[in-house]
Amino acid sequence: MFDSLKDRFEKVFTSLRGKGKLTEEDVKLALREVRLALLEADVNYKVVKDFVERVRQRATGQEVLSSITPAQQVYAIVFEELLDLMGREVKPLSISPKPPTVYMMVGLQGSGKTTTAAKIALKMKRSHRPMLVACDLRRPAAVEQLRVLASTVGVPFVGPEEGETDPIRVARRALERCSETLVDLVIVDTAGRFQIDQELMQEVQDLKGAVNPHEVLLVVDSMTGQEAVSVASAFNDRLGLTGVVLTKLDGDARGGAALAIRAVTGTPVRLAGLGEKVDDLEVFDPNKMAQRILGMGDVMGLLERVQQATSEEDVERLSESIKRNRFTLEDMLIQLRQVQKMGPLEKVIEMLPIPGVSKALKDANVDPKRIKHMEAIILSMTPRERRNPEIIKGSRRRRIAQGSGTSVQMVNQLLHQYEQMKDLMKAFGKGPKRGFKVPPGLKGLFR
């Protein structure tokens, strides 16, 4: 997501950094590229026009043009305007002071509404007792899908009784059951269509009046581009949305919906779906998103992943190894497993805040299977071999290759990568270097 937009912005600011002082013509040319980048990302034309004009007014001020670091100031202006565009504050879901809280999920068919309802239930389950309610009675598969998802995430489910066709009756029955089951959060999945029509709008409007939801959440497929803004506007006009959930942000969407929905509708993006799994949902953070768009990485997100993947015991052990300059294959195995726990490597790479590193590694095309092969090779070694790699000669290498289901060549590559990792750790200890390139010995990690 946002890859092409990020690349275009990087080129713009690279050209500005090469100039000692900026002229109005320099700013004009840069903003032309910014405008094209946003339009190619499928951002609404009016939003782009207003955004570029605000940046132009601030960037052509005398304070910026006469600054000794004008490129940095323009960079900061674009960053701040992106924040204003998406909303500066994180807007997590709220809870009604008088239970039960009701979340009503609305959206077009195929947007991921039913799956998102289950994802929210799992997320809120940590501090509440949610219930999933199937009110999409026009598509029988939707009821069964939600029933299965409720079982998967371990929350109560209420659906239509045999022959029941009125979603309002289903919703009211679910609310009546809350006191019996100690449920304090009801998540209502509503009907969708392939396109907006009067019948759909009337049904969800009647359902809203019946359940009086605390949050009305529109689920939007990020892949729909500018159409997502039109959908959000239509639902907002009829229902008064309180938030938007963007799905498929892990895909190849160009990102226009994330940038434009709030600007056009005034409705904040509350959550972002990052995958198909039920735990692939996070609170939408405009600050993190703006940082990633401008190639600044996502330091906080990276730290959160590292903390989740790393135990104190592993940290202490690795620190001790580095202090003694005794980095072994056992330490390398720990690091490989931590990397796997952090999630898809390409997503982790996007979070790297070091200029040039993210692009260099991403261009190398990460191959997660290589990590598994490396782990299998190390596990096929004896404890003595892991602690003393220098003893691994010809016959040992053949045995290790056979035991791990790999080849002698791959064992040789891993041992070479091990040596490179030791050198790389020393290099990073001295600080990041400009013009970062993937060390030749580590290219085996990539296709």
Automatic annotation (TrEMBL):
GO terms for cellular component: signal recognition particle. PROSITE patterns: SRP54. Coiled coil: none annotated. Residues 268-281 form the SRP54-type proteins GTP-binding domain. The keyword Kinase does not apply. It is found in: Cytoplasm. The keyword RNA-binding applies. SUPFAM superfamilies: P-loop containing nucleoside triphosphate hydrolases, Signal peptide-binding domain. It catalyses: GTP + H2O = GDP + phosphate + H(+). Keywords: Cytoplasm, GTP-binding, Hydrolase, Nucleotide-binding, Ribonucleoprotein, RNA-binding, Signal recognition particle. GTP binds at residues 107-114, 189-193, 247-250. Its EC number is 3.6.5.4. GO terms for molecular function: 7S RNA binding; GTP binding; GTPase activity. InterPro entries: AAA+_ATPase, P-loop_NTPase, Signal_recog_part_SRP54_M_sf, Signal_recog_particl_SRP54_hlx, Signal_recog_particle_SRP54_M, SRP, SRP54, SRP54_GTPase_dom. HAMAP family: SRP54. Part of the signal recognition particle protein translocation system, which is composed of SRP and FtsY. Belongs to the GTP-binding SRP family. SRP54 subfamily. Involved in targeting and insertion of nascent membrane proteins into the cytoplasmic membrane. Binds to the hydrophobic signal sequence of the ribosome-nascent chain (RNC) as it emerges from the ribosomes. The SRP-RNC complex is then targeted to the cytoplasmic membrane where it interacts with the SRP receptor FtsY. Composed of three domains: the N-terminal N domain, which is responsible for interactions with the ribosome, the central G domain, which binds GTP, and the C-terminal M domain, which binds the RNA and the signal sequence of the RNC. This is Signal recognition particle protein.
